[in-house]
Design goal:
Blueprint: E1 3-8, E2 15-20, E3 24-28, H1 31-36, E4 39-43, E5 48-50, E6 58-60, E7 67-71, E8 78-83, E9 90-93, E10 106-110, E11 117-120, E12 127-130, E13 147-148
Parallel strand pairs: 3-10, 5-13
Antiparallel strand pairs: 1-2, 2-5, 3-4, 4-9, 6-7, 7-8, 8-9, 11-12
Length: about 160
């Protein structure tokens, strides 16, 4: 059953609201997840509402141009990841859920350190190795399907801190 959860970075500068079922989170051992401790809670974009101005978000961009790791530039906590190129499009950091004891959640392990997915590129027919298809870089939150709270401006992540 879907419930509404509050999500925030450590300092509270970035706040989200997610209405979804909290069935499991995914722990990955890839280079970035192992270092950051990000616990993936996959949800649909329409289940996420940004409660604070998105100009407060910074984005770490890598691998592709269709997503990114969005984090608070003040405390450095990664709150959410997005991608429109590969499903699942949105991953909320389970460690940022307010009033949820992650020790009681079902945690599925994913071997991202060794996982390589292959796909054929449409133009060349050459196989392209893609690590973690849900990671990416530099996307507008509205383009990823986020609902932006009324009155919030600057809903585009440019890959860095916006003024």
């Amino acid at each position: 059953m879907a419930s509404t959860y509050e999500v925030s970075c450590h300092c509270g500068n970035i706040q989200l609201e997610v209405t979804a079922e909290l069935g499991e989170v995914v722990e990955c051992n890839c280079s970035i997840c192992a270092r950051s401790g990000f616990l993936h809670w996959y949800v649909a974009p329409e289940q996420v509402r940004l409660k604070t101005p998105s100009r407060r978000l910074s984005t770490y961009a890598w691998r592709s141009v269709t997503g990114g790791q969005h984090f608070c530039p003040t405390c450095g906590i990664a709150v959410i990841r997005t991608s429109t190129e590969h499903p699942p499009p949105v991953s909320v950091n389970g460690r940022c859920l307010k009033d949820v004891d992650i020790a009681v959640l079902k945690i599925r392990r994913f071997d991202g350190k060794h996982a390589i997915l292959r796909r054929k590129t449409a133009k060349s027919g050459v196989s392209a190795a893609i690590l973690h298809p849900w990671h990416g870089c530099g996307i507008g939150l509205r383009a990823a399907g986020f609902e932006i709270a009324a009155g919030r401006d600057n809903d585009y992540c440019t890959g860095g801190t916006e003024a």
